[in-house]
Amino acid sequence: MNRLPASRPAARRFCNSRFSPPVTALTLLLITLTTLPNSANADTPTTRPNVLVILADDQGWGDLSLHGNPNLQTLNIDSLARDGAQFTNFYVCAVCSPTRAEFLTGRYHNRMGVYSTSSGGERFSADEQTIAQRFNNAGYNTAAFGKWHSGMQWPYHPNARGFDEFYGFCSGHWGLYFDPMLEHNGQITHGKGFIIDDLTDHAIDFIDQSDEKPFFVYLPYNTPHSPMQVPDEYWNAFKDQPITPDPTPANAAKQDTPHTRAALAMCKNIDDNVGRLIEHLQSTGKADNTIVVYFSDNGPNGWRFNGGMKGRKGSTNEGGLRSPLVIRFPSQIAAGTKIRTVSGAIDLLPTLSELAGLDWQSIQRDGKPIDGISLAKELAGATRSLSADDRILFGSWKNRSTARTQKYRLHSSGELYDIENDRNEQTDIASKRPDIAVHLSKELQRWETETAKENGSAKSRPFTIAHPDAVWTQLPARDATFSGQIKRSNRFPNCTYLKNWSDVSDKIQWDVEALSSGRYEVQMYYACPKSDVGATIDLTLGDSRLATQIDRPAESPFVGAAHDRVERQEGDVKRWQPITLGTIAVTPGQHTLTLRATEIPGSQVCEMRLLMLRRID
Questions:
Q1: How many Cα atoms within 13 Å fall on the side-chain side of residue 141?
Q2: pLDDT at 365
Q3: CA–CA distance, 271 with 328 (Å, rounded to integer)
Q4: Which of 492, 487, 494, 410 is nearest to 448 (CA)?
């Protein structure tokens, strides 16, 4: 992929109201109902709108000035609502990988194998059809730039799920945001500069290369997720700023002010990059025919301003599940549109598909019913009845479940809240409205039973290798099991490495399923001081074996923490170096891939970050 020049100026701040003249809702509805793309009048891809979906990571509903945050101005994100539609009751999941699965498929994450945020639990079933596959099949150029967090190996890799182009990382969190190790279509590469600026550069570049076809760009940013790293210009603007806490005293008392300042600085950087994207769409004449979507994956990763709502990331209360959602589509959506319908990430696939004229309802005939609904007609100005029982939106995480109607939220604990009048969930009304509590409890139990059956044996799935369509396959340390003296570098596995590999009885293993046969070159990304060079290691896979010696040092001091604005919880990272271990024959079936040492002349074998398998025939 072509890159922008190295001299690209720092992200600028844009806020422009020149997107569309005011249009009455009735006029827009009449226009849209006759011109909305569909399979009949959108015969060629060039007649379809472009789509740009931007997803923030750990940004709460309250992290925008749009929602009253007094501590920062997010003028570019706010402008998407001003010039398009703002959703006031939009919900995602309590943590990130479930939300991504629900956006990508239009189905609840616990129907399709998602049960964790790492070590394979973030993967949704390989037979699910994604929004990218649907748009790709309709003639779109598709790309994802950023944090994937839905599986690393084919057929879970983004290139296997409908994205022609992928640049970013597949794990749940990353330990370095400046010039980090990333991947490009499966192959290890390195980023350039601050990661959010870099991902935006790639998105702009891809948009420029998609002149002949419409584009579908998914831009899952990885901030303000920790570690709390951000360029100096943003940190300097917030590091000494007085911070107004959340209006709820219980939330305010738990605020970590330095962490909050760093998060706000990261949100400001996101807003500036959204501004760059808006300006580029305008300058290239693509703005009117591009659907721009902005939302977040869960509640905030800290106790900061969030409109007084109970809960944060990881919670199934309003504060953990409510997300911003703004959609701008100047040729179809009137400026200042407000959507009050209770809605969620599962609704984006049907809504965007209908706006683009794709037949999303056919998925229901494929045995995978879509849980989401299309809100395209409401975006065009139609009205929907908002009765209390109009729709039930479900959510769950870590043995906690919840049911949300237009008016109420019931928790699996039995608590019932009138959200329309008690957004902060302060007064449990289950005893006053037993009719509602009993009804929603039965519906929640039915949904839990139904989805539990569908989730099946997800926890026993091995990691896939040797997919016939994949050249590169990563097996990172986070997916390995280990024994003996070996330790994981941090309790959060996604970006970890294995250390203390100091005994010939120690083993590093992956449970794998080979999907085809072939010969593969195996590289190991490692770090090893000169004093420990010389260990001999064996790699076995089924009946195949290779042996090699670590014959050169890979000096790699810690990097990353020097950029932290507050102390990190995640482990430190290093500049890992590859060493070729040799080639190995792979046969189809389930195996245990084992890495062990046969001779250790120094104090350790090495520190191991990942294995990379490259198909050679």
A1: 15
A2: 59
A3: 15
A4: 410
SS3 16: coil
Tokens of 128: 């699910």
The average confidence (pLDDT) of the chain is: 90
Q: How far is CA 265 from CA 53, 72, 173, 240, 587, in A?
A: 22, 9, 19, 12, 50
**CATH class of the domain at 25-140+193-217+261-312+330-379:** alpha beta
Dihedral sign of CA atoms 106, 108, 113, 116 in order? positive
Query: Could you tell me the pLDDT band of residue 363, with boundaries at 50, 70 and 90?
Result: low
Strands 408-411 and 400-404: antiparallel
In the chain, the percentage of residues whose pLDDT exceeds 70 is 91
Query: Could you tell me the pTM of the whole model?
Result: 0.91
Contact 298, 58 (CB under 8 A): yes
* CB crowding 299-321: b at 16 or more within 10 Å, else e: bbbbbbbbbbbbbbbebbbbbbb
Q: Quick one: pLDDT band at residue 21, thresholds 50, 70, 90?
A: very low
Three-state secondary structure call for residue 97: helix
Report which of residues 339 and 8 the model is more confident about. Answer: 339
- Does residue 155 have a cis peptide bond before it, meaning omega lies within 30 degrees of 0? yes
Residue 31: pLDDT above 80? Answer: no
- Rg of the chain taking only CA atoms, in angstroms: 25
Class of domain 463-615: mainly beta
Which DSSP state fits 8? P
Evaluate whether 141 touches 162 at the Cβ level (below 8 Å).
no
Cα–Cα distances (Å) from 381 to 290, 332, 339, 405, 507, in that order, read: 19, 10, 10, 22, 61
CA 79, CA 19: separation in Å to the nearest integer?
10
Provide the residue ranges of all domains of the chain, joining segments of one domain with +: 25-140+193-217+261-312+330-379, 393-456, 463-615
pLDDT of residue 459: 79
Alpha carbons within 13 angstroms on the beta-carbon side of residue 540 total 9
The H or E element spanning position 453 is helix 434-455
pLDDT of residue 3: 34
Apex 329 CA angle, 5 and 391, nearest 5: 125
Per-residue confidence (pLDDT) for residue 341, from 0 to 100: 94
Measured CA to CA, the distance from residue 319 to residue 309 in angstroms comes to: 5
Give the pLDDT confidence of 170-196 residue by residue, as tens digits.
998 899 999 999 999 999 999 999 999
Q: Which pLDDT value is given to residue 389?
A: 52
Query: How would DSSP label each residue in 334-348?
Result: -TTEEE-S-EEGGGH
Residues 6+ apart with CB under 8 A from 582: 521, 522, 539, 546, 547, 548
Tokens standing for residue 135: 């748009």
Question: Which two three-digit tokens encode residue 56?
Answer: 């923030």
Percent with pLDDT over 90 in the chain: 82
CA atoms of 286 and 290, how far apart (whole Å): 6
pLDDT beyond 80 at 343: yes
Looking at residue 455, its pLDDT comes to: 72
**CATH code that applies to domain 393-456:** 3.30.1120
Query: What is the pLDDT confidence band of residue 359, given thresholds at 50, 70 and 90?
Result: confident
List the structure tokens of 365: 């005939």
Cis (ω within 30 of 0) for the bond into 245?
no
CA distance 161 to 146: 15
Tokens of 552: 């050169």
In the numeric block, the tokens 């109607």 are attached to 405
